[in-house]
């Protein structure tokens, strides 16, 4: 059964990132008009916009600091002026930093993860949910991580931010579900991206040997899960945390 998102508009934060760009292409291929958020990579955003418009979809690029509420509101205004509405919000952006132990991790890294995981989610909900409530439909899809279940050494700031994000998404699912809006999370494992293909680093035996499917997932497999959650096929799924990691982490019941 093909997925058709014709007439829908999706906003993807961090759309120029390794996973974001594949999500953008995939949802556009399914018919969605696209709002491409970026923070600093204007050139990649413009390149991606050209790709999506070549598919016959409307597309706009918007620059914003997703940790700044006023910047997110301005991003929304620019998106609405260009495309009229946003039906699907994919929260993919996150601040990158160097991982180390809790005792050595700079405090600023904990702040950056809180701001880019938790506050981004709050900013997007406050900005885009009211119009979805009025229309009686909408989708929020957060990109979480398998690390939120692993809690391995060195992951503390990232795990803390993503576990906080998980709390926001679970509560939001209960608060706005009555309006026909679903709120879900996709949790990738260590995913093969364009950068891996360029660097011939797709195969990481030390990681894959612990994965039940014995391989790393791909950026396209992450995008496919996002596409499913964005579609009517997932109309009765909300509040879910869905690992896309070959079984490397398995939520219990």
TrEMBL record:
Q: Does the keyword 4Fe-4S apply?
A: no
Keywords carried by this UniProt record: Oxidoreductase
Has UniProt tagged this entry with the keyword Oxidoreductase? yes
Spell out the SUPFAM superfamilies in the cross-references. Answer: NAD(P)-binding Rossmann-fold domains
List the InterPro entries: NAD(P)-bd_dom_sf, SDR_fam
Alphabetized PANTHER family for the sequence? OXIDOREDUCTASE, SHORT-CHAIN DEHYDROGENASE/REDUCTASE FAMILY (AFU_ORTHOLOGUE AFUA_5G02870), SHORT-CHAIN DEHYDROGENASE_REDUCTASE FAMILY PROTEIN
UniProt lists the family membership as follows: Belongs to the short-chain dehydrogenases/reductases (SDR) family.
User: What name does the UniProt record give this protein?
Assistant: SDR family oxidoreductase
């Amino acid at each position: 059964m093909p997925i058709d998102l014709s007439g829908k508009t999706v906003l993807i934060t961090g759309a120029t990132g390794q996973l974001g760009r594949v999500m953008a292409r995939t949802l556009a291929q399914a018919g969605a008009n696209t709002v491409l958020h970026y923070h600093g990579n204007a050139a990649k955003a413009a390149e991606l916009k050209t790709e999506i418009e070549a598919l016959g979809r409307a597309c706009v690029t918007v620059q914003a600091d997703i940790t700044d509420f006023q910047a997110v509101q301005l991003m929304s205004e620019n998106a609405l002026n260009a495309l009229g509405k946003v039906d699907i919000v994919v929260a993919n952006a996150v601040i990158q930093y160097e991982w180390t132990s809790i005792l050595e991790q700079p405090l600023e890294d904990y702040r950056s993860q809180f701001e880019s995981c938790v506050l981004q989610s709050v900013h997007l909900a406050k900005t885009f949910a009211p119009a979805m409530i009025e229309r009686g439909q909408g989708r929020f899809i957060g990109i979480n991580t398998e690390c939120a279940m692993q809690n391995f050494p060195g992951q503390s700031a990232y795990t803390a931010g993503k576990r906080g994000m998980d709390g926001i998404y679970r509560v939001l699912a209960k608060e706005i579900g009555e309006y026909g809006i679903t709120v879900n999370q996709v949790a990738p494992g260590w995913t093969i991206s364009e950068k891996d293909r360029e660097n011939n680093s797709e195969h990481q035996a030390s990681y894959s040997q612990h994965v039940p499917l014995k391989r790393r997932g791909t950026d396209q497999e992450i995008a496919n899960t996002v596409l499913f959650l964005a579609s009517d096929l997932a109309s009765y799924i909300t509040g879910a945390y869905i690992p896309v990691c070959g079984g490397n982490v398995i939520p219990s019941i």
